[in-house]
Design goal:
- The strands form 3 sheets. The protein has a 9-stranded mixed β-sheet, with helices on both faces. The protein has a two-stranded antiparallel ribbon with strand order 9-12.
- The chain is globular.
- The protein has 369 residues and is an alpha/beta fold.
Length: 369
């Protein structure tokens, strides 16, 4: 374990150092000669397993990437295999990356049971924050609250300002708001370099952190005012150790690309589908006003022009409809502060960043206020 504590409790740092020092090939100056493995962790924890499953600490797992994401599946399988915790899962049924802290008020969401061996699992037709909110509400599970909420393992880093976009980090934040300690885990996935098996290596890296966190929670020394955002380097098995870091201002740049209408037939044909429905209702005579509504819709549609140009539309009396797709593009930046999350991650360390619910205002801004 390297670096300053940056507000993280000395107890947890000491706990992590102890875990790492007991692992073969790992030294406390932050280097690792041999990658951590799930089997090593299981051996170290074998004596601590509870004989009565009902007495095991409850852990709730979610993910911004969805219930079937390889990161979540690998993590849950490893936690079940450990046998130390009563594992529950509540995750979105589809990928909800970059959903931030969005919720679904005023709408009905479904929670369907999912078969994950050794765990109690539900997929939810909502956001990651919905999943944690309903999971902790008492409406879905019989227990009052878990000892820890884990969100991940997310596919792609969530350093710096990406934290504000991340659904995975938001899920951990929602747990913290509800008074439950939480971790968010992310793998620095690179399209042409990473592979699905990297998630299993990432799990081996995370387990000591998870176990150390739960020990500190049980001892009452884990900080109650922060969540931990854990970033795992692209090659988890060759990481250089853990480093406690602070949030940087790095982010990926949003890139809006104009696309042609024929690439999105569902969007382009929405109005024509509605017109067809109105005409059918009129023909069947189910609603005498439907024919009039369909005619008005047809008249309105004639004034709508769908264009595929990427340029700015000129003045026209017609309405203009354009289609766009959002992608996030990583920016190449030089980071010199070794205590920053993105710098540690780029240097091959596992970044551990405490995140607080309260904004940190620098002294200069505070003086102006």
């Amino acid at each position: 374990m390297t670096s300053k504590n940056n507000g993280l409790s000395a107890a947890l740092v000491s706990n992590l150092q102890d875990v790492l020092s007991k692992r073969k090939g790992v030294v406390t100056d932050g280097s690792a000669e041999e990658p951590p493995s799930t089997s090593d962790v299981a051996a170290n924890e074998e004596e601590e397993k509870e004989s009565d499953d009902d007495s095991r600490p409850i852990v709730l797992v979610t993910s911004g990437d969805g219930i079937d994401s390889p990161g979540l599946v690998s993590l849950v399988e490893a936690l079940v295999r450990e046998g130390l915790y009563n594992v529950h899962v509540c995750a979105p049924q589809t990928d909800k990356s970059a959903s931030s802290h969005s919720m679904t008020p005023g709408e009905t969401i479904s929670a369907s049971s999912v078969n994950i061996k050794g765990a109690t699992a539900f997929e939810v037709s909502g956001t990651p924050v919905d999943c944690i909110s309903v999971g902790l509400s008492g409406a879905l599970f019989a227990w009052s609250k878990p000892i820890l909420v884990i969100s991940g393992i997310n596919q792609g880093s969530n350093c710096g300002h990406q934290i504000f976009y991340s659904g995975a980090v938001a899920a951990a934040r929602e747990a913290l708001i509800s008074g439950v300690p939480s971790l968010s885990l992310s793998l620095n996935w690179k399209k042409d370099e990473s592979q699905e098996s990297d998630f299993k290596d990432a799990v081996g890296v995370c387990l000591p952190l998870i176990n150390a966190t739960i020990r500190d929670i049980e001892k009452g020394v884990f900080p109650k005012d922060c969540s931990l955002n854990i970033e795992i380097p692209t090659s988890p098995s060759s990481n250089k150790g853990f480093k406690v870091t602070k949030q940087s201002v790095w982010r990926k740049s949003p890139s809006w690309q104009a696309v042609s209408a024929n690439r999105h037939p569902g969007a382009g044909n929405f109005m024509s589908n509605q017109q067809s429905l109105g005409a059918q209702l009129a023909q069947l005579g189910r609603d005498a006003s439907a024919a009039g509504a369909a005619r008005r819709f047809t008249t309105q549609k004639k004034s709508i022009v769908e264009i595929e140009s990427v340029g700015v539309a000129g003045k026209t009396e017609s309405r203009v409809k354009k289609y766009f797709r959002l992608e996030f593009v990583a920016k190449e930046q030089e980071h010199t502060d070794d205590d920053l999350d993105i710098k540690a991650l780029e240097d091959g360390f596992v970044s551990v960043t405490p995140l607080s619910l309260l904004p940190k205002i620098d002294p200069e801004t505070q003086a102006v206020a």
